[in-house]
Amino acid sequence: MTDASPMRIDGSTTGHGDSGGNTTADTSSQGNQGLTTPCPPNVSTTAEAATKGRKRSWVWEHFTMVGGGDSKKARAACKYCGTDYAATSANGTKNLIAHILKQCKKYPNSIGKSQSTLAFEFTTDGGSGDLFAVPFSVEDCRRALVEMVILDELPFRIVEGEGFKRFMRVVCPKWTTNKIPSRMAIARDCFNVFLREKKKLGKALRGQRICLTTDTWTSVQNLNYMCLTVHFIDDNWTLHKRIINFCVVDNHKGVTLGRAVESCLFQWKLKKILTLTVDNASSNSSLIEFLKDKTKEKKDTLLENEFLHVRCYAHILNLIVHEGLKELDESIAKIRNVVRYVRSSPQRWSKLQACAERETISSKSQPCLDVPTRWDFTYMMLDKAQKFQKAFERLEEVDKNFLPTLREGEEDEDGDDGNCGQSKKGKNVFGPPEREDWIKVRLFVKFLQLFYDAALRFSGSKAVTANQFVPELMLIRDTIEEECLNENESLKKMAMDMKSKFNKYWENLDNQNLLLYVAVVLDPRYKLRYVHFAFKGLYHDISKVDEKTEQVKDALVRMYEAYLKNEKGRDAQNNMSTQLSQGSSGSSSSGPLSVRRSLRMAQFMREIEEENSLEKKSEVERYLEEGLAKLDGYFDILNWWKANSCRFPVLSLVARHVLAIPVSTVASESAFSIEGRVLDPFRSSLSPRMVEGLLCAQDWLRSSSTPISLQKALEDVEEFEKLDSELGELTIADEENPNASLVKQQQQQQQQQEVPTLTWPENSELDLDWIKNLISTFDWSSKNLPPSEFQSVLPVQVFDTLILAASKILHEEPNCLTIDPDKSSTAVVVGDIHGQMHDLIFLLKQAGFPSQNQFFVFNGNYVNHGAWGLETFLLLLAWKVFMPDRVFLLRGNHESKYCTSVYGFEKEVLTKYGEKGEHVYQKCLGCFEGLPLASVIAGCVFTAHGGLFRSIPLTQSKTSKGKKKSRKLSSNSEPESLSLGSLEELSRARRFVLDPPVEGLNLIPGDVLWSDPSMTLGLSLNKERNIGLLWGPDCTEDFLKKFNLKLIIRSHEGPDVREKRTGFGGMDEGYTIDHVVESGKLITVFSAPDYPQFQATEERYKNKGAYIVLEPPNFDNPNFYSFEAIAPRPQVNPYYDYVNVIDSNKELDLASMDPIEELP
């Protein structure tokens, strides 16, 4: 993982970015590249010494021996505070360890007990909030550990594991091993969390009218569990789902379940029950009758529980789908045969891929096996397999074992049939699918898509589903009706069987809960008109349609009247009590007279309200007479009722409760299963009381988290199948040749994945999708292809088109860009990247892609020192072509012919494009020439790669035509004659040169690209680099003041340079503030973390990269974002002699360059 740390230069923080972290210097070892917390001394840092074959204690790394050579008087002095201790062999190291861990206040890793640390506020969306100070607390650590055990379903024993203890010593060394609670203590804490959260939930449920669902589970010991869940919409019109009971029941009989539900409701003091959703089992009918009988006489019961029973939509949908699957049983079994055949070995899978390539099948999805009890997996298998029909048919021709194996059947080692499909009827089916089978399946997949989408929509618990039930039901019915007319007899019979099952449950309105139709009426987009429309399609008899529509309306009116009677009077009493309390507190006296006055006024207002109600229409009538709301995909029914509850105070109560009705008893992860839910072995081993506590607490703690995405889960299945196949191949490779496992894995990945090839858009206009595809393709090729095959990813023709389009834009831009973001935009400034493409991709995602409200200024040095300079440069050119007025690319000193020939870019291009490499390289050099030199952002921020530049006097002498000058600096370049240049002079400079000259009239480009700041006042030649200038703080002040600027942001210096510059800060955090003067600041930013790439890990600087964000309205208060390198990087051979050519302080060997002819 990488982290980013926003920090203003004044020490304040900002919350920009997607994830947070800290800006502590990276002191991690090679094996822990993601960690920024220093490794504590008591973990895994014991130095292995060869002294007498014994281990030397880690503590000696922190002490120095003193006291001369007398071993009897030897003492050890702390390296940090100087305290010394007796250190003879008889003394041991106990005192030394205690000193480092508990006493030494100067030890770098020491944190006082009362000292706070900085952390980012946790957010439920996985991001990070504001930075704030957090004091260390053992109680907080323990609470977080308990919640982790509950949420992640971990066994209690995890806290006693050696791995966990080691992990905690690293992440939280202050929480020592003896303070970590035992597994029994954790178990008690988990149950206490359950009790604490139960108390909170009890208060929230008080007075709520709720809807219930039941679900049954089974443990590995065959114990029966009943799960009871409440669904309700709160006063703020937010839908909630909470498990309130998970208990053992003796059996699944209706009366037994009814008593369990009654007991749970009594325990939670829940009296207002609207509906109970159960699956379609006879025992559940007994459950409903039991509860009706027990609660119908209670005062909080509505209409004697007439609408209590709701059938589970997902369960009935499963029954209908499986009715259809029976007709295609044999065709499905045959397709399962061929899928199992190719999935049974990597060799067979490779043959299928080869056949797919020959048939030009471009689908990236892979055929996968289904799960017999999950019809959604069967749908997924059929959907993916039918795309490979021609590949399977070709496999019959090229694989001599294909047909014999399928026709004879193949047994696994355990004796099970390996390639013999079995139908639902128990009949063994051999052989591959015929053409007729493929036709049936292809038609059935289209048909099944409707049921698949419906199951996804109605099995969730985070969105209202009751109002969508009838529209979805009608859509399914219409589709079945159409398939009943299909010319294919098999599909026609399948549809007829499904229609019969459909009519059994849903044709007769008397068998359905009318509240599901009332929910449609309470949707302001549908109201009663859609119900009438739906019944016309169902019954075809207008008199029956009118009768059924009136029946639904009557149900709504009766509900409204029941609420008017049972709810409104209570609300009025509450309002009166509120008025009385307000009147008492607001009056000068609080005696009986004040109370009587308030009561009298309340009675008067009620009488007026009752008189007016006789003259007005009811809320139901007014609601139904109003026009329909706009029918679109962005409509939020809960927000609509929230906004209109003041106009329909009683009807909105009806809506709030009816819309909370769940149409399914199960969550999305089990919506497709025809089997029950099974408790995992760990929880099955616990007591029923503890099981209930863990499951309920987990549900309550997760209540604000993102719901489970079934689609993502299905995608994970496919990804894990790929991984399993890779691991199988890797195991075989290890057995055959342990040293070839990595090579084998890379070869396998190349075989399994089609090499993506980028093409230029047909309309020649780039868009965001093309850019994202470019990013993912470059990232994939860097990890899966050798550099020599890069041209298969980006053909030369596409390269030429891209670089031509970008060059035209760049060459037309001025030397110094004027960038004017508006008050709603931000500007991001990026420093040296040096071919570290993966870090650039992270930076773009972290900061946010360029957009109309986000400008990007890249400060040069895109290539050299890294393995992906070409990809980095081309990615930025693509952004430039896509958003030319939002993305700006400045030139760096490495965008030159000399530097690219020495520091790897030329060789990189030649390696990646082979014979065409020279052509590509020359095109890149031509593009380099067009890169602007500097920019001014918002009129107050000057950016350039190197920095400031000199003024060129117009009276300077010229060389005679045809003559060349020597490398000796001319007299006009002497320090006493140097003065700062102006922006006007910068605009006139001739930038279209590959290697800037060091003398003559065109010195400004070399200054801008190569100059460095200094702590010495004045302007002088940069003799260390042999090109450019050194300028002091006074020059920074003069430049800022003269051009009314606030900031100068430059790059150019990495950690290798900065470690040799006295008076300047290091580049550990990716940025430094070099000059702070009256008018503003000078800043250096470097965006290549863990630099340079090709050096050995232990020899790198382990620096962070950084970028700067300038925000409105003034854009002059920079926010710094530090981030660590993406690890691990793909392994690539270096493109230059990084051992000998490493010092970027002396990057120009002027003697090796041809003399440059002075400008005429």
Automatic annotation (TrEMBL):
Its EC number is 3.1.3.16. Residues 25-48 have a biased composition (Polar residues). Pfam families: Dimer_Tnp_hAT, hAT-like_RNase-H, Metallophos, zf-BED. Belongs to the PPP phosphatase family. Residues 10-24, 577-594 have a biased composition (Low complexity). Signal peptide: none annotated. One of its GO terms (cellular component) is nucleus. Homodimer. GO terms for molecular function: DNA binding; protein dimerization activity; protein serine/threonine phosphatase activity; zinc ion binding. Its main location: nucleus. The keyword Hydrolase applies. Residues 1-52, 406-431, 571-594 are annotated as: Disordered. InterPro entries: Calcineurin-like_PHP (IPR004843), hAT-like_transposase_RNase-H (IPR025525), HATC_C_dom (IPR008906), Metallo-depent_PP-like (IPR029052), MPP_PP7 (IPR041754), RNaseH-like_sf (IPR012337), Ser/Thr-sp_prot-phosphatase (IPR006186), Znf_BED (IPR003656). SUPFAM superfamilies: beta-beta-alpha zinc fingers, Hermes dimerisation domain, Metallo-dependent phosphatases, Ribonuclease H-like. The keyword Translocase does not apply. This is Serine/threonine-protein phosphatase.
